[in-house]
Amino acid sequence: MISFSIDNIDEYYVKEILQEETNFEKETAEILKDAATLHNDLRNYGNIEEKNKPLIVSGILLALRETEHGNFSLESLTGDTVKTDGSKIYAAIKANLQRANVSPEVKKDKLLSQFAIIRDDVKINEKNANLGKTPIKHFTEFLYKSIYQSLRYNSSAEDYLGRFYGEFMSYSGGDGQNLGIVLTPKHITELFCDLVDLKPTDKVFDPTCGTAGFLIAAMHDMLTKAESDSQRDQIRKHQLFGIEEQSYMFTIATTNMILRGDGKSNLENQDFLRQNPSKLQLKQCNVGMMNPPYSMGSTANTELYEINFTEHLLNSLVEGAKAVVIVPQSTFTGKTRFEKETKQNILKHHTLEGVITLNKNTFYGVGTNPCIAVFTAGIPHRPEKECKFINFENDGFEVSKHIGLVETATAKDKKQHLLDVWFDRTEAETKFCVQTTIEADDEWLHSFYYFNDEVPSEEDFQKTIADYLTFEVNMITHGRGYLFGIEEKENYQETTDIEELPMVAEKGDKYE
């Protein structure tokens, strides 16, 4: 039953009663359209590689900031063959990085080297007969009208840029899903801040920061709670730390932070797993947030398992720090020897607070069943410690046709209930939350600890079988066939027929 509140009554009326699109859905539809248009234009007029598309977008948005200082204008892009449009945009990017006080110099040089494609690519700097201008000018005009002005005048600019990046990169393939990189939805990054009760004095570390979604959410949360301009300045300069291995993602993350007024974010272009945890502890970070690369680990390459990233993060934080990670549910089933040993090591040195099973469509279109785990770093897990295991699959978000995952009128109430249960402000039935002691060999999921004594109907049983088979196929196609006694094969998805998968029952069989 929905508890109507001032926060959601208008949205409920528009969507559920009038059956109309909410402002969020209309805005999202526009973003989807703009992202698709820009992606197609970059392909058709520039023949740009996938990973370079987000870089061109990021660079242009930085250059457009110089229009406010009189150092750059759309009119200056004349298609000159000597002083090209791209060189003018590149000069504006360089000026804006200086204006943002990006330091040290080596970091600024690394960023500029990524943006050099704007200056050096011949095709986008030559006039296109169909456009009547250079493709790079066309891209710049499009971004100015559709995105940059929205960033300046839209009250929800924080959301707008992040959502555009997310949609654009999913169109372009630049989100690196083939590399195991999955962008985190905004409502999840905000939930992370709530689960650790983020304070304006906290220091936040994201070791696989991607486009900086967690750091941006943390910055926004802390700035809102800050009580003075000096404290806000301190947050921007000294309380946000990130690492990103991919150079182009690092550039996008840094740009993302600059566009939100943070030019001194402590982002590093490094391989997190190669960093010494003791040295990382010197940053004195007391909050860790992470969405590690998915489905990269294997029995032949165990260090890339999500559970290993999790342990490395915990070892990199100060004693008593809170760490929140979003990972596939299979991370905590611990079926391989390495994963079992890593879970044991985690409990020897750190404390598991709880695990929240999420909506299966949280990463809509990716096919990952995720969960959130919360830990306390540096304090060994006591055997009598009771952890919370929560089933938050029904989170108030649903898939909307042609748009993706959208928030419904019930989402705010459901999130508030989750937080009330998490912080012991209210009790919940065991079908929502189970509190129990744990063992390292347990599957750290609500489904493992929850006992449902209701007699299931035949429909319930069939649905469970269908859900299981969906999960099984998903795990096998992501290289985790060993969970079901299937030996790993290289390129499993290509070499295995669906008929080879072990099925529980043939279609039409009766379930007794």
Automatic annotation (TrEMBL):
Q: Which UniProt keywords apply?
A: Hydrolase, Methyltransferase, Restriction system, S-adenosyl-L-methionine, Transferase
Q: Which InterPro entries match?
A: DNA_Adenine_Mtase, DNA_methylase_A-5, SAM-dependent_MTases_sf
**Which GO biological process annotations does it have?**
DNA restriction-modification system; methylation
A GO molecular function for this record? site-specific DNA-methyltransferase (adenine-specific) activity
- Cite the DNA methylase adenine-specific domain residue spans from the record: 157-439
Main EC class the enzyme belongs to: transferase
Reactions it catalyzes:
a 2'-deoxyadenosine in DNA + S-adenosyl-L-methionine = an N(6)-methyl-2'-deoxyadenosine in DNA + S-adenosyl-L-homocysteine + H(+)
- EC number(s): the record gives 2.1.1.72
Kindly give the PANTHER family that the UniProt entry links to this protein.
Answer: SITE-SPECIFIC DNA-METHYLTRANSFERASE (ADENINE-SPECIFIC), SLR6095 PROTEIN
Query: What protein does this entry describe?
Result: site-specific DNA-methyltransferase (adenine-specific)
Q: Which organism is it from?
A: Streptococcus infantis SPAR10
